[in-house]
Amino acid sequence: MSCLQTIQDYGLRSIGIGERLLPRSDFTLCEQVTLIGSGMIWNVYFGVVALISGFFLATALAVAKASPRKGLRKPAEWFIFIFRGSPLFIQFFFGYFLFLSLKSQYPMFDAFTSAWLGALIVLYLNTAAYSAEIFYGALLSIPKGDTEAADAYGMTGWPRFKRVIWPTMLRLAWPAYTNEAIFLFHATALVFFSGFPAWQQKGDALYYASYFADKTFNPFVPYPILAGYFILLTLCVVGVFGAVNARLNRHLPQEARRKMRLRPNLIR
Amino acid sequence: MFSFCTDPDTLDQARWLACYLTTGVHLSFYMSFLKVLGLLAVTAPVALGFGFAGAMVARSHIAPLSWIGKAYIAIVRGVPDIAFFLFFVIALDQAFEYLRHKALCPDWDEPIRQGRDFVVCQAAKLPLGNAPQWVHETYGFSLAVITFSIVFGAFAANVIFGAMRAVPRAQLETAEAYGMTRRQTFWRVLVPQMWVFALPGLSNLWMVLIKATPLLFLLGVEDIVYWARELGGTKTPRFTDYPHGDWRMWYFLGLLVFYLAFTRVSEIALDRIMGRLTLGQATAGGEAQRKGAVA
Hints:
The complex is a heterodimer of chains A (268) and B (295).
Chain A: H1 3-10, H2 29-65, H3 70-85, H4 88-105, H5 115-140, H6 144-152, H7 157-187, H8 205-216, H9 222-248
Chain B: H1 13-20, H2 24-58, H3 63-78, H4 81-104, E1 113-114, E2 117-118, H5 133-166, H6 169-177, H7 182-212, H8 224-232, H9 248-278, H10 284-294
Antiparallel strand pairs in B: 1-2
Keywords (chain A): Amino-acid transport, Cell membrane, Membrane, Transmembrane, Transmembrane helix, Transport
GO biological process, one term (chain A): amino acid transport
GO molecular function (chain A): transmembrane transporter activity
């Protein structure tokens, strides 16, 4: 079987298009690369959707945590503490079993027990909490002059937030937020190892990599392939976020632009 | 456990729960918490050692060595940690068996990889086929410790590498001016001053290490996640005196609370340590403390 044929059969296997049965013996390098790459679709899906939706919740949480009103501040503080203080792995398990017991009482929770929705919600809440902490830190370090200038122009409320505080907050938070995005993508690899079942063997990249490692008892081929894919994905994330960073800082003189210092040294 | 536990069917709720939570399997569940703490206690210093060695290699003046160090840091940080855990457990096991095979059975002529099997001679098996159960468990646990140490060593190496560069250059120049050799400068000036710069990163790492401990489950160790899944599942009266429905959600809620409490305690402890270490240091933290004491 040629490699092109393999790509046609297994390229979209992880979302249920193509050959039904996974290869069972005589694994070729092409099959491994194709299937693991096919699994990356899920990693990208979880990462992108959770990141975009989490961004809005994170902004709201950060503003709430910086609010002088206790009724807003306390819930935000607790939310952030709970999701940052416990392992994502346990959150996945808890979320899955929570949805499972809800499902037994209300059938409408049926979709929540499958990974595409249930795991996405856990990831969404988790990344919102981590990003909110980053945004909160940035809110606190907004230069006083910026807000005073807004006050002097008579800006209040929403326009003041939208035109002065929010852009500055993003600008300050962006390097740390890039790290968070990278680690969110890494965290998506946990999904199918934490309770959420891979229905009809539609799994993510790590699911297929461990499938091959189990079948061949040789970890030295599938895991380096997986590593290669993740390094590529990381480079893409860095590229996209770097472009956004350049746009956020476009009003600054070239020399003064903050260099993106990427120090991805956090895992959950 | 308690004397009234002989017939669980007749008990009221509170007593039933007291009996339920002290059954033999639950005691194993509580022991597995000790396993997690043990893993942390062993891994933290070993990973710190790996990190120190990694940082030393990465800033070596011999180019190939420094490349190796930097590659170690970069690769481990660029790939999801869980992939490393899954990889190293098999890879380390095979590496050990391969080395023992080469040493113990030199006259073996079959290839080690036969299709999908990994075949070594009987004497090279790890642990030996006839070893008692505790040897198997200890072996699995040590593999987990080594894996954790390799992964977290890379993170620690990154932190220590950065801290070594944060030590003011003037300090090192002074040491050189006194005629200290490179080695003396490193051990007598750089290393003692580096810790205060490394501590914020290392305490961050400690938090991350705590939160990585449930991944032990993936390494095949019977840890708290394993027991929570086992004990929480639906139990029918046929197999146990304490039948109940699907309680896994509550067990994992318990684990969640355990980790939250642990994180909080660590935060408080690390804040104290940081306060101690910054006392009298020429850093922003030390300066703030000095001003606070005066005011």
